[in-house]
Amino acid sequence: MELLENEIELVEKLCERLLLEKAKKPNTRLNILEIGCGSGKLAIHLNEVTGGKVTAIDPVHERIVTAKQKAQTSEVAFGVQSAEKLDFADESFDVVVSLKALHEMTNLWDTLQESLRVLKAGGIFFAIDWIGGVARTRSHSHAKKYFAMESKAHATKYFTMKRLEDELSKAGFAKVNVEANKECELMLAEGEKT
Length: 194
Ligand SMILES: C[S@@+](CC[C@H](N)C(=O)[O-])C[C@H]1O[C@@H](n2cnc3c(N)ncnc32)[C@H](O)[C@@H]1O
What we know:
- Strands 3-2-1-4-5-7-6 form a seven-stranded mixed beta sheet, with helices on both faces.
- It contains six helices and seven strands.
- By secondary structure, it is of the alpha/beta class.
- It has one domain (5-192): Rossmann fold (3-Layer(aba) Sandwich).
- It is globular and about 40 Å long.
- The longest helix is centred in the first third of the chain and has 20 residues, at 5-24.
- The structure holds S-adenosylmethionine.
- S-adenosylmethionine binds at residues 35-38, 41-42, 58-60, 63, 82-84, 99-101, 104-105.
């Protein structure tokens, strides 16, 4: 598993939550969609931990090529798509997840509406992302990019915990909850489709 050190705590929490969902549906496999999967490490990890069927999408073709090369199993399917306009039927998935990707999506409203559309009733949306939309750990390889973005006017669009909570509620998710990791650097947000 190639998870970064700062991702492990919340990814473990996410996995615990997914295993609880799985326990509610004995004899069925979770059908999981990851949006903004990059080179696929979370999708592969979630398949290994939950045994669920994972579909993972990203609009960058090269990342999907890398992800396909990495995946050792046909249980994880990768495709080139944008989360803002998904090519899946309504109510296809039990869970939609994303890792450090939501802040990069141009239209958060469309992403959340599309996630709601493809979730089954009772399905859950989970997103792990930077608090504030910027990396605080200067040693992190992505940090320079985020620190540069901080000075730009559009930096105000990045997430606080409160903003992400509000956006999920406004989009129509119920039981919205957002929690921070110990360093208060990353947050795990969740909301349920009623
Ligand atoms: C910081 S990377 C994180 C990738 C991966 N989740 C990880 O943790 O390694 C953000 C990803 O979001 C993807 N992305 C940007 N806009 C997107 C969109 N509209 N729909 C889906 N993914 C998007 C990018 O292509 C990129 O792979």
